[in-house]
Amino acid sequence: MELKKINQIVDIFTDSTAGIFNALYNLTVSEQVSEMFEWLKEHEALDIDYYVSHSGEKYASRFYIKMLDHNKTIGDIASVVFNRFKNKWEKSYDAMMMEYNPINNYDMVENEKVNYKITYNIDVDNKKHGLGSTTAAPTDEGKSTTTTEGDADDNVRELTRSGNIGVTTSAQLLAGELEVRKNIFIEEVMKDIDSIMCLKIY
Q1: CA-CA distance, 120 to 130, in Å (whole number)?
Q2: pLDDT digits (tens, 9 = 90+) for 149-174
Q3: Phi then psi for 106, rounded to 5 degrees?
Q4: What angle do CA 31, 35, 40 make, to 5 degrees?
């Protein structure tokens, strides 16, 4: 079998629809898959990155050559790639986009226990006395004498503090964090594609 480099098979500048990311994007649109693949909307840029700077000079795998020899298209190859890595990419993308609040770069909870009890009485004259009150108020007839006390453990005030301590802006945090995550994710996707489309010798 004659060895061919990826760029000998595909010229992404001559045919922008011939790339693997374009084929993956079309596949996700036709199958109406989840939003976990919205990153494929950038398929043109991803194809340029893949074929020009990442894998274009690598040799095509035997699988890739055989598929072409049997008149299979890049769409057929994309189906194999997608079937192999769909679940992995969904989970990785979900982890990448996990909730990140750049405004709150510290978070603290304080619990304060207040040591007092709440008491009211209904006396024999069927009148209710409020907390700290010496004046009784009428209540419905038929009530018995009752004392109700709240426990000190019930009197807990919780304070939550969060915010930006001022070391950097929210825009910087957001841009920096998501850019790092995205680069790592895309690099892993390209390696997964290489494992099917490229020989493991360069």
Answers
A1: 5
A2: 555 455 566 666 655 555 555 555 56
A3: -150, 155
A4: 75
d(CA 192, CA 186): 10
What DSSP designation does 58 have?
S
- Residues 199, 62: Cα–Cα separation, whole Å: 7
> Edge to edge, what strands does the sheet with 146-149 contain?
136-138, 127-129, 119-122, 146-149
Q: CA-to-CA distance for 122 and 130, rounded, in angstroms?
A: 9
Which range has the top average pLDDT, 1-5, 113-117, 134-138?
Answer: 1-5
Taking the CA of residue 200 as centre, how many other CA atoms within 13 Å lie in the half-sphere pointing to its CB? Answer: 3
Mean pLDDT for the chain overall: 77
Inter-axis angle of helices 62-69 and 170-197, nearest 10: 70
- Assessment of whether the complete model's pTM goes beyond 0.70: no
Measured distance CA(79)–CA(73) in Å, rounded: 10
Burial class (CB in 10 A: 0-12, 13-18, 19+), 106: exposed
Q: Report whether 30 contacts 79 (CB < 8 A).
A: no
**Which of helix, strand or coil describes residue 120?**
strand
Is residue 107 pLDDT above 80, yes or no?
no
Residue 79: how many CB atoms within 10 A of its CB?
16
Rounded CA separation 180/189 (Å): 14
